[in-house]
Specification:
The complex is a heterodimer of chains A (about 160) and B (about 375). Chain A contains eight helices and four strands; from the N terminus they run H-E-H-H-E-H-H-E-H-H-E-H. Chain A has about 160 residues and is mainly alpha-helical. The chains are: A mainly alpha (about 160), B mainly alpha (about 375).
């Protein structure tokens, strides 16, 4: 009984996940022919609660793209891969302590905050390319309005609280 | 003391009458009653009175006993018992002393004679000097005699008792002595036995000692002979060894002399050799010293060089390490940045911020297009 119920729950979970993926995919399937633009995949994936880096996203795309790049991704390819990822819980958003650690690495002098210049420098020079818009959004959300710096400890905890 | 003449005459008449009667009594009294017919009658009359009194006392006792059982006093019984005992004694005595014996009559006769004599004496005195001192004297003398007799009896009794005691003592002593004698006799016999034994023993011992001494003497002689022989043999061997020793001594002396010569020669040779060797070694030593100095110099130079090189190597290593650390740091920073960016992008999509705001959906699209181009 227990086994079968477990199986049932696993099956229901799988169905749930597939349903979610289908819903997310359909939002971006503008022509309703079960395909989406390659460039929308990142948004779909992220909307499903994953946080892959651009490099990881690139790897995913390489896996599901047609042999002849058409600039579109087919739902038949996307669904199994995404299901797999979600079942394995890969690319989960980084938890609070990991984010904090990342900020601390950037805060070389360990002063407890990062100036706007420092943030801009790291985000633009290091890592993957960060667009101006993303940068601006990030700054507007992260910078403390009183002191004009990123008090990353407070910021991370606030974001974590919002998450939960 | 003297009576008047008349009184004395009266008294003398009475005395004379008494004397006459006594002498008549003396004349008529038989020597013995035995063999006469009235004797048995006299005796039986005596015994009869005694027995009668006895019977009377017994009957009285019976009465008293019955009276006592009826609750009368006891003193009467006591008196009766006493009187019974005395009458018994009296019966015994009268049975033993028959008044018929000859001695009794003799005594009576004698006593009568004495009385008569005294009375005659007194009568004469009364007649002559009207007094009776002779009677008093006779009574005194009699009293004294009686006292003496009693004294003698007491003494005799004492003597008899003492004799008995002494006899007993003598007997005891005799017994003791006899025992002692027996003991002594036994002792003597025992000692005699011992003496005999001792004699036999000493005899045997004497024989044994004699034999023993002879044997010892013989043994000693033998031993002496043996030791003498041994010593003689030893003497012979010593003589031969002495000869040998003398010879060997000579031989050894010769040999040692030769050896000494040889050794002296060798010593000379070795002395020479020592001198030469020392010289050679000295030379070698100086050569080695110079070479050591050279080597030292070289070593110092090399050390210096080594230190230099080492410094260079260490610097190089430190530099490399720094570089590595820097690289690591950069990598870490890159990763951190990538992670933050990835998280931010996800967050933006989820929270519908910036380009994903539904109101600005078109603008977002445009931006995304840009991004996609960049990636490609």
């Amino acid at each position: 009984m227990a086994e079968s119920s477990e199986k049932e729950s696993a099956e229901s979970m799988l169905a749930d996940i597939e349903k979610k993926i289908t819903e997310a995919f359909e939002i971006f399937d503008h022509e309703s022919n079960r395909t989406v633009d390659v460039r929308e995949i990142g948004t779909i994936v992220r909307s499903l609660g994953c946080c892959p880096s651009e490099g990881e996203l690139h790897d995913m795309l390489a896996e599901i793209e047609e042999e002849e790049p058409t600039g579109y991704i087919r739902f038949e390819k996307f669904l199994p891969m995404m299901t797999h990822i979600l079942m394995e819980r890969r690319y989960k958003p980084a938890p609070e302590d990991q984010l904090l650690k990342a900020f601390e690495v950037l805060d070389v002098e360990k002063k407890g905050f990062l100036s706007q210049d420092e943030i801009t420098k790291y985000m633009n020079d290091e890592g993957e390319p960060f667009t101006q818009e993303e940068m601006e959004e990030f700054m507007s959300a992260a910078v403390d309005p009183d002191r004009g710096v990123v008090l990353y400890k407070d910021y991370v905890s606030v974001m974590a609280v919002e998450d939960t | 003391m003297a009576f008047s003449h008349s009184t004395a005459v009266h008294l003398a008449a009475i005395y004379e009458d008494c004397i006459n009667q006594l002498s008549i009594l003396g004349k008529i009294m038989p020597v013995s009653f035995q063999g006469k017919p009235e004797a048995s009658q006299l005796v039986s009359g005596d015994i009869g009175t005694v027995l009668n009194s006895q019977k009377m006392v017994e009957s009285k006792l019976d009465e008293a006993l019955t009276a006592r059982s009826e609750g009368k006093g006891r003193s009467g019984v006591q008196d009766l018992i006493e009187s019974l005992a005395s009458s018994n004694r009296f019966v015994d005595q009268s049975m033993r002393q028959s008044p018929l014996t000859k001695d009794n009559l003799f005594k009576v006769q004698e006593d009568r004679q004495f009385c008569e004599d005294v009375l005659v004496e007194t009568h004469k005195e009364l007649l002559v000097s009207h007094g009776f001192s002779s009677l008093v004297n006779a009574v005194d003398a009699e009293c004294k005699k009686k006292f003496d007799l009693q004294q003698t009896i007491i003494k005799e009794e004492h003597g008899r008792r003492k004799i008995k005691q002494l006899q007993r003592q003598v007997q005891d002593i005799r017994k003791e002595k006899e025992q002692e004698i027996q003991q002594r006799n036994e002792m003597i016999a025992h000692l005699k036995d011992q003496l005999q034994e001792m004699k036999a023993k000493s005899n045997m011992e004497g024989k044994y000692v004699k034999k023993n001494a002879e044997n010892q003497v013989h043994q000693n002689q033998q031993r002496c002979v043996l030791s003498e022989q041994k010593l003689k043999e030893e003497l012979d061997t010593l003589k031969t060894t002495l000869d040998e020793e003398v010879r060997t001594h000579h031989e050894i002396e010769n040999y040692l002399k030769n050896h000494q010569k040889l050794l002296e020669e060798e010593v000379e040779y070795w002395m020479d050799k020592y001198d030469k060797d020392v010289e050679a070694k000295q030379h070698e030593l100086s050569v080695l010293k110079t070479s050591k100095a050279n080597d030292l110099e070289r070593l110092q130079e090399l050390t210096r060089k080594y230190a230099e090189y080492e410094k260079v190597v260490v610097e190089d290593r430190i530099e490399k390490e720094k570089e590595r650390r820097k690289k690591e740091q950069e990598e870490l920073e890159l990763n951190s940045a990538v992670r933050l960016q990835a998280w931010w992008r996800g967050t933006m999509v989820v929270k519908q911020m910036g380009p994903f705001n539904k109101k600005k959906k078109k603008g977002g699209k445009g931006k995304k297009g840009k991004k996609g181009k960049k990636k490609k």
